[in-house]
Amino acid sequence: MRVLVVEDERRMAAALRRGLQAEGFAVDLAHDGEDGLHLAREGDYDVVVLDIMLPGLSGYKVCERLRAEENWVPILMLSAKDGEYDLADGLDLGADDYLTKPFSYVVLVARLRALMRRGARRRPAVLRAGDLALDPAARTVTRGGVPIELTPREFGLLEFLLRRPGEVVSKTEILEHVWDTYDTDPNVVEVYVGYLRRKIDVPFGRNTVRTVRGAGYRLAGDGG
């Protein structure tokens, strides 16, 4: 298993390499963001351990650029920044996990193994279906570059559907993930799908959110 460690503190980077090699990993090191980005682009890594505060390019920028290039190598961000917004920023930009310093080495290795088991999966920072785009971090939705104002519930519904393009999802699944409950009347989903269509489809002459009779809804991957 090949690991890229991008860490500017050389003693820590060396210690990580020794420890990971002892666990059977093959480890490459980079000490700034630009070198880390280059190696991540060119190397066939199973996972990247990425510090945030780096010379040249920050870990946030490295992660953002890799995801923009549709490079889905699993990324574990490693940082002394432990605020909840720091964590949210890292995950919103496409990182898979986030560990704060000081950290448990046993936990680090366990998390790396978990990421490797999952493998490289698509995790775009901006969700798209044709010309419809939703940015979870910026909380914005556009269609053909035209901004669309959604309520928080409408936004959550659209995000859930965009994360499962082409799949049929039931009202129960939507209630569980968007409303976080099974107890709400399922008809509320139908109401909010109607609200959503009037904002993202009707003004643009599209049919993005489609009803699958007796089963639920499907979002057209091409944007309708």
Describe this protein's structure.
With 224 residues, this protein is α/β, with parallel strands linked by helices. Helices cover 40% and strands 21% of the residues. It has helices spanning 10-22, 33-42, 59-68, 84-92, 105-118, 152-162, 171-179, 187-200; strands at 2-6, 26-30, 47-51, 75-79, 97-100, 127-129, 132-135, 140-143, 146-147, 168-169, 209-212, 216-219. The strands form three sheets. A five-stranded parallel beta sheet has the order 2-1-3-4-5, sandwiched between helices. β6 and β7 form a beta hairpin. α2 (33-42) runs parallel beside α3 (59-68), α6 packs across α7 and α6 (152-162) crosses α8 (187-200). It is elongated. The relative contact order is 0.10. The model has no long low-confidence stretch (mean pLDDT 87).
Fold blueprint:
Layout: E1 2-6, H1 10-22, E2 26-30, H2 33-42, E3 47-51, H3 59-68, E4 75-79, H4 84-92, E5 97-100, H5 105-118, E6 127-129, E7 132-135, E8 140-143, E9 146-147, H6 152-162, E10 168-169, H7 171-179, H8 187-200, E11 209-212, E12 216-219
Parallel strand pairs: 1-2, 1-3, 3-4, 4-5
Antiparallel strand pairs: 6-7, 7-8, 8-9, 10-12, 11-12
Helix pairs in contact: 2-3, 6-7, 6-8
